[in-house]
C-alpha cells in the first residue's frame, strides 16, 4: 500500500499492455522533452530550518509521485507517495509535506536529514521517471570560547596557544586582536585550520583582547573578548620629596613615587615597614603621592614606595626625611631662644646649688663619726631611689634629692643627641 506501483491496480489495463509499458520503460530512451530535475532550496540548509526538494520539469498529468530516502526505490525507505491523496510511508518523520506538484517540504531539519532523496514519478502512460537530489544540513554554530594553555604567561619567556572552541566540522575561523585583524608579526602563528593562534614570546603588548569568530555557510558566531594576563617584572620606581629637610609643624611635605608602569598598584613603607597612615597623611587616589601636613618629628625616617603588578613588585631606594624641631614640648607654644637658654642656665644653677649644699652637709656630717657609717652604707646599697621608706635621717634625704636632680638633668640632656641620631636635628630658630 502506498507504493507507486499503481498501474497494476488501474482498471481497464490489460496485462499485455502493462508488460509492454514495463519493457518500454526499460528500453525507451526519453525524447528530447523536459528532463525531471530536483532542486534543493536552500542548497545548504541550517539545522532547524525548513527545506524544499523542488521537482522541476514534472510530466503533465502524472498519476503519482513517490519520495524515497536514499538513492534507491526501496519501499522500506518510502517517505511519502501521492496519487489521489498523500500516503505516508515508513520513512515519514512527521515533518514532510508532499505537494501535488511533486515538491517535498521537510520542516525543522536536523543533521540526520543530510543525504539523498529520490523522486519517482509515474506518468499517465504508466511509465516511471526517477531523479535523485541531495540535501546537506549544517549545524548552527554555538558561540565559540577562547581558551589559553597558560593563564599567567611571563613576558619574553612563554609561548601561549589560544584555541577557539569547540571544534566543529566544516567551520572556518577568524581572529581579531584589539578589534583589528591579526597584525603581520613573526610572533603570531595561525594553525592551518585557523582554529589555534600561537603567540610566541609574549610581551605585555599582547594582552589583547582577542576575539575569534566561527562561521559556516549557514551561521556565524563570535566569541566574547579574551584577555591575556601577561606577567612582567616591574622596573624599580624612584621616590622624590618636595623637601627632604623640613621643620616640624611647618608646611606640607609631598612624597611622589615615580614609575612608568601602568596597571600597577603602589604601597608605602616607612622604616622598612608598611606605612600606617596617620591623620596628617593623605594618599592620592592612585596612591602615587603621599602628603604629610603638618609634619611631625615622628615622621622623620626612611620612606620607600613599592609598585606591584600581578606577577612582580619592586621597591624604591629609601629616601630619608629629616625633621627639625624645637626642644620645647610639642604641646607648648614657641619659646624664644632667650627663654630656652634661661631654662638651661636655671637648671644648671640649681644643680650647682644642690651640689654645694651636698658638700656643705657632707662637711658637717663628717664631724659626727657615728653618722659617717650610715652614709657609706647608703652609697653602697641604695640604688633604687626609693623615697617611700620611713628613715628620716637628713643625710639620706639629701642624697636621694641629689640623685633625683641628676637623674632629671641627664634625661633632658639625652633628648638632644638621641634626636640627632634618629635622623632629626636640634635647632633653635
Ligand atoms: C527542464 O528541462 C529542460 C530540457 O531538458 C532544461 O533545459 C531546463 O533547464 C529544465 N528546467 C529545470 C528547472 O531544470
Ligand atoms: C510546488 O508547490 C509548492 C507549494 O505550493 C511550491 O512552494 C513550489 O514552489 C512548487 N514547486 C514548483 C517546482 O513550482
Ligand atoms: C525542531 O526540532 C528540534 C529537535 O530536533 C525540537 O527540539 C524543536 O522543538 C523543533 N522545532 C520546531 C519549531 O518544531
Ligand atoms: C603552551 O603551548 C606552547 C606551544 O605548544 C608550549 O610551548 C607551552 O609550553 C605551553 N604552555 C603550557 C603552560 O603548557
Ligand atoms: C563537511 O564537509 C565535507 C565535504 O564538504 C562533507 O563530506 C561532510 O559531511 C561535512 N561535515 C559536516 C558535519 O557537515
Ligand atoms: C571594538 O568593536 C566593538 C564593536 O565592533 C565596539 O563596540 C568597541 O567599542 C570597539 N572597541 C575598541 C577598543 O575599539
Ligand atoms: C607581511 O609580511 C610579509 C613578509 O614580511 C610580507 O610579504 C607581506 O606582504 C606582509 N603582509 C601584510 C598584509 O603586510
Ligand atoms: C622567542 O625567544 C627565543 C629566546 O629569547 C628566541 O630564540 C626565539 O627566536 C623567539 N621566537 C620568536 C618567534 O620571536
Ligand atoms: C609595547 O608597545 C609600545 C608602544 O607601541 C612600545 O613602545 C613598547 O616597546 C612595546 N613593549 C614591548 C615589550 O614590546
Ligand atoms: C620580579 O621579577 C624578577 C625578574 O623576573 C625576579 O628576579 C624577581 O624575583 C621578581 N620578584 C618578585 C617579587 O616576584
Ligand atoms: C627645604 O626646607 C627648608 C626649611 O624650610 C628650607 O630652608 C629649604 O630652602 C627648603 N629647600 C628646598 C629645596 O625647598
Ligand atoms: C592604595 O593603598 C591602599 C593601602 O595602603 C590600598 O588599600 C588601596 O587599594 C590602594 N589603592 C590603589 C588605587 O592602589
Automatic annotation (TrEMBL):
SUPFAM superfamilies: Immunoglobulin. GO terms for molecular function: protein tyrosine kinase binding. GO terms for biological process: regulation of immune system process; signal transduction. Residues 1-34 form the signal peptide. It comes from the Eukaryota. The keyword Magnesium does not apply. Pfam families: Ig_3, V-set. Residues 374-385 have a biased composition (Basic and acidic residues). InterPro entries: CEA_cell_adhesion (IPR050831), Ig-like_dom (IPR007110), Ig-like_dom_sf (IPR036179), Ig-like_fold (IPR013783), Ig_sub (IPR003599), Ig_sub2 (IPR003598), Ig_V-set (IPR013106). Residues 142-229, 237-322 form the Ig-like domain. The keyword Calcium does not apply. Residues 374-414 are annotated as: Disordered. Keywords: Glycoprotein, Immunoglobulin domain, Membrane, Signal, Transmembrane, Transmembrane helix. The chain crosses the membrane at residues 339-364. One of its GO terms (cellular component) is plasma membrane. CDD domains: IgI_hCEACAM_2_4_6_like (cd05740), IgV_CEACAM_D1 (cd05774). Belongs to the immunoglobulin superfamily. CEA family. This is Carcinoembryonic antigen-related cell adhesion molecule 7-like. It comes from Bos indicus x Bos taurus. The lineage of its organism: Eukaryota, Metazoa, Chordata, Craniata, Vertebrata. The gene is LOC113876456.
Amino acid at each position: 500500500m502506498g507504493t507507486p506501483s499503481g498501474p497494476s491496480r488501474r482498471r481497464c489495463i490489460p496485462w499485455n499492455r502493462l508488460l509492454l509499458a514495463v519493457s518500454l520503460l526499460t528500453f525507451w530512451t526519453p525524447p528530447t522533452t523536459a528532463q525531471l530535475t530536483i532542486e534543493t532550496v536552500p542548497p545548504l540548509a541550517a539545522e532547524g530550518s525548513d527545506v524544499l526538494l523542488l521537482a522541476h520539469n514534472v510530466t503533465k498529468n502524472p498519476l503519482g509521485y513517490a519520495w524515497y530516502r536514499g538513492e534507491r526505490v526501496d519501499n522500506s525507505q518510502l517517505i511519502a507517495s501521492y496519487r489521489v491523496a498523500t500516503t505516508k510511508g515508513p520513512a515519514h518523520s512527521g515533518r514532510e509535506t508532499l505537494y501535488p506538484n511533486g515538491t517535498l517540504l521537510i520542516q525543522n531539519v536536523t543533521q540526520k536529514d543530510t543525504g539523498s532523496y529520490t523522486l519517482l514519478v509515474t506518468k499517465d502512460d504508466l511509465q516511471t521517471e526517477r531523479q535523485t537530489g541531495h540535501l546537506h544540513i549544517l549545524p548552527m554554530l554555538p558561540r565559540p570560547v577562547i581558551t589559553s594553555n597558560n593563564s599567567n604567561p611571563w613576558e619574553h619567556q612563554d609561548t601561549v596557544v589560544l584555541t577557539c572552541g569547540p571544534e566543529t566540522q566544516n567551520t572556518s575561523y577568524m581572529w581579531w586582536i584589539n578589534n583589528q585583524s591579526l597584525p603581520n608579526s613573526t610572533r603570531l602563528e595561525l594553525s592551518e585550520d585557523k582554529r589555534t593562534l600561537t603567540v610566541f614570546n609574549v610581551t605585555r603588548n599582547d594582552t589583547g583582547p582577542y576575539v575569534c569568530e566561527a562561521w559556516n555557510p549557514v551561521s556565524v558566531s563570535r566569541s566574547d573578548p579574551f584577555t591575556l594576563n601577561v606577567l612582567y617584572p616591574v622596573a624599580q620606581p624612584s621616590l622624590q620629596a618636595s623637601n627632604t629637610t623640613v621643620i616640624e609643624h611647618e608646611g606640607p611635605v609631598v612624597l611622589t613615587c615615580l614609575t612608568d608602569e601602568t596597571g600597577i598598584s603602589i604601597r608605602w613603607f616607612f622604616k622598612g615597614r608598611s606605612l600606617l597612615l596617620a591623620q596628617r597623611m593623605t594618599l592620592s587616589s592612585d596612591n602615587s603621592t603621599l602628603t604629610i601636613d603638618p609634619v611631625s618629628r615622628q615622621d622623620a625616617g626612611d620612606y620607600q614606595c613599592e609598585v606591584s603588578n600581578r606577577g612582580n613588585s619592586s621597591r624604591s631606594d629609601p629616601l630619608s626625611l629629616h625633621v627639625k624641631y624645637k626642644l620645647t614640648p610639642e604641646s607648648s607654644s614657641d619659646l624664644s631662644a632667650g627663654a630656652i637658654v634661661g631654662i638651661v642656665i636655671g637648671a644648671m644653677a640649681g644643680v650647682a646649688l644642690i651640689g654645694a649644699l651636698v658638700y656643705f652637709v657632707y662637711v658637717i656630717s663628717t664631724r659626727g663619726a657615728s653618722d659617717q657609717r650610715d652614709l657609706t652604707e647608703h652609697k653602697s646599697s641604695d640604688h633604687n631611689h626609693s623615697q617611700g621608706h620611713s628613715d628620716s635621717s637628713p643625710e639620706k634625704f639629701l642624697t636621694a634629692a641629689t640623685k633625683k636632680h641628676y637623674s632629671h638633668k641627664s634625661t633632658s640632656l639625652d633628648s638632644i643627641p638621641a634626636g640627632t641620631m634618629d635622623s632629626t636635628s636640634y635647632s633653635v630658630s
